[in-house]
TrEMBL record:
<comment type="similarity">
    <text>Belongs to the cytochrome P450 family.</text>
</comment>
<keyword id="KW-0560">Oxidoreductase</keyword>
<dbReference type="InterPro" id="IPR002401">
    <property type="entry name" value="Cyt_P450_E_grp-I"/>
</dbReference>
<dbReference type="InterPro" id="IPR001128">
    <property type="entry name" value="Cyt_P450"/>
</dbReference>
<dbReference type="Pfam" id="PF00067">
    <property type="entry name" value="p450"/>
</dbReference>
<keyword id="KW-0408">Iron</keyword>
<dbReference type="InterPro" id="IPR050121">
    <property type="entry name" value="Cytochrome_P450_monoxygenase"/>
</dbReference>
<dbReference type="GO" id="GO:0020037">
    <property type="term" value="F:heme binding"/>
</dbReference>
<keyword id="KW-0479">Metal-binding</keyword>
<dbReference type="GO" id="GO:0004497">
    <property type="term" value="F:monooxygenase activity"/>
</dbReference>
<keyword id="KW-0349">Heme</keyword>
<dbReference type="GO" id="GO:0005506">
    <property type="term" value="F:iron ion binding"/>
</dbReference>
<dbReference type="GO" id="GO:0016705">
    <property type="term" value="F:oxidoreductase activity, acting on paired donors, with incorporation or reduction of molecular oxygen"/>
</dbReference>
<comment type="pathway">
    <text>Secondary metabolite biosynthesis.</text>
</comment>
<protein>
    <submittedName>
        <fullName>Cytochrome P450</fullName>
    </submittedName>
</protein>
<dbReference type="InterPro" id="IPR036396">
    <property type="entry name" value="Cyt_P450_sf"/>
</dbReference>
<feature type="binding site" description="axial binding residue">
    <location>
        <position position="434"/>
    </location>
    <ligand>
        <name>heme</name>
    </ligand>
</feature>
Length: 498
């Protein structure tokens, strides 16, 4: 019976695959000469085209399009339909309510939280160093992941889930995220098919079950807290002893603001989805970027030394956000990491109406020069974030090198990049640009500041063995040990002044 189901399923998948290729072919040819003749990469497989290469190779080389429905279904499985997935007027309404909670003044008040959590990690590493006899070998990605999870839970809900301390291992929220964090590091056909053909999601699968569980736990948790906050705000419950306003409190308050018309307000379900979005978008992204920062510094000891000198010149362990922002070399290092290692190497859009796309470089087709192409409504477009961040025509011949000094003398071409931070597209730009970029940058600066003043980092494996997971978010992994999941082994030594 199982065999028959599996054979029918395989046939169905192959049929849907061929049907889609045929549709794509008709679609491309109907766009006319210009679109049809734009050069694309050679296709190594008749059935899957360049899909495998899309996941496994450096995206600087790709110009492939994703199906938006696939991305939406995949992301919605975990976060529901918060700001990340809504569009048009609905999206503007959601951003209007959520924006104030990410304003610079609000983000600034989390500085103390960032430093407290970074110091907690610093002390945990000190214990590891002591236990392991002077030099600790640790998976820094997993520690940074725990730290950023603690930070976002406290910032979002005002609750400490104790991921770093391991005190509350049975906490439901922490367990749910731990399940989701058991990420894929190998290419396999079934998840890919499920991604491209959302209809296949009706068949149960382990990853979907984990996502659904996390979604439910986050929803229940946020639901209870929303009711509490609403009762606090309308006066029917005494206010809790908040050290600082958390996102949820700010969001509920902003949503009850008299200036926002009742029709414009978010429903409780909308707020729950916003909480899920912020929890999910706001922790692993930061942990991954921090891991790549440690990787770059460990690979370039001279740069690590120079940065440490700058950080150790500060007299206090608890700088203000302004003091952190004034650290010039720290800023250059972070800009360089963010440019070279965007967590999301590409993103997808689909044209909502017929449009004309101007080309940066005109193309010559059959002797005719085209400086723009016409894109009909519903054309999928890939925004090649990594490709643009490393484009040699924009950044110069050393675009692939880690060179923080470049930020003191940036080529004019690089300043034409439209990103919201650091002249790169890592946080994207436009209406869907990352809402939490200030939060992320401040958290990363506070963490690097704290860790690098105390420790010297060295790679705990050969640099050639470090790879990127073939997932939507590019985590570090060990190429020789994909089964152990995302990781970045490093050697940690207490820093001793020479
Ligand atoms: C280094 C860390 C981070 C990176 C690289 C990053 C990157 C991004 C990118 C590329 C997008 C756009 C995705 C798309 O539309 O395709 C995005 C959206 C978003 N990010 Fe971040 N993010 C980071 C940290 C954070 C943090 C800390 C938060 C919250 C505390 C956050 C909250 C969001 C939200 C809510 C959106 C959806 C915005 C919208 O669609 O209007 N992100 N982020």
């Amino acid at each position: 019976m199982l065999l028959i189901i599996s054979a029918s399923l395989t046939c169905a998948v192959i049929f849907v695959g061929i049907y889609n290729l045929w549709l794509a072919r008709i679609r491309v040819s109907s766009y006319g000469d210009v679109f049809y003749q734009l050069p694309g990469p050679a296709s190594p497989s008749l059935l899957f085209g360049v899909a495998r290469q899309f996941w496994t190779t450096d995206p600087t080389e790709q110009h492939e399009a994703w199906k938006p429905l696939a991305v939406r279904t995949f992301v919605a499985e975990m976060v529901g339909t918060g700001t990340l997935l809504s569009e048009g007027a609905n999206h503007r309404r959601q951003r209007r309510v959520v924006n104030p909670t990410f304003a610079p003044a609000q983000t600034r008040q989390f500085t103390e939280l960032f430093l407290v959590k970074a110091c907690q990690l610093r002390d945990i590493l000190a214990l590891e160093v002591a236990v392991q006899g002077g030099v600790a070998r640790v998976d820094i990605y997993s520690w940074l992941h725990k730290m950023s999870l603690d930070v976002i839970c406290e910032a979002a809900f005002g609750c400490n889930i104790g991921a770093l301390s391991g005190e509350r291992q049975s906490n439901e929220l922490f367990d749910a995220f731990r399940l989701v964090a058991q990420q894929v590091t190998r290419m396999s056909i079934w998840p890919m098919l499920r991604f491209f053909f959302p209809v296949l999601r009706v068949f149960p699968e382990e990853q979907s079950r984990r996502f659904a569980r996390a979604r439910q736990v986050m929803g229940d948790f946020a639901g209870k807290r929303i009711k509490e906050k609403q009762r606090e705000l309308d006066g029917s419950k005494p206010k809790g002893p908040h050290r600082r306003g958390d996102f949820l409190a700010m969001l509920v308050e902003a949503n009850m603001d008299q200036k926002i018309a009742v029709m414009q307000r978010l429903s409780d379900q909308n707020i729950i989805d916003e909480c899920r979005t912020i929890l999910t978008a706001g922790h692993d992204t930061t942990a991954i970027t921090l891991s790549w920062t440690i990787y770059c510094l460990a690979k370039h000891p001279e740069i690590q030394r120079q940065l440490r000198n700058e950080l150790r010149a500060i007299a206090t362990d608890s700088p203000t956000m302004d003091e952190l922002a004034a650290l010039h070399y720290l800023d250059c290092v972070l800009r360089e990491v963010v440019r070279l290692y965007p967590v999301l190497p590409s993103s997808l859009r689909i044209t909502s109406e017929d449009t004309v796309l101007p080309l940066g470089e005109p193309i010559n087709i059959n002797g005719e020069i085209h400086d723009r192409i016409w894109l009909p409504r519903n054309t999928p477009i890939v925004i090649p974030i990594l490709a643009l961040n490393r484009d040699k025509t924009l950044w110069g011949d050393d675009a692939f090198d880690f060179r923080p000094d470049r930020w003191d003398n940036l080529p004019k071409t690089a300043s034409t990049m439209p990103g919201i931070w650091g002249n790169s597209l890592t946080f994207l730009s436009g209406p869907h640009a990352c809402i939490g970029y200030r939060f992320a940058i401040n958290e990363m600066k506070a963490t690097i500041f704290t860790l690098l003043r105390t420790y010297d980092f060295e790679l705990g494996l050969s640099a050639d063995d470090v790879g990127q997971t073939p997932t939507m978010l590019r985590r570090p992994m060990r190429l020789s040990d994909p089964d152990s999941g995302p990781q970045l082994p490093v050697l940690v030594r207490p820093y001793r002044a020479e």
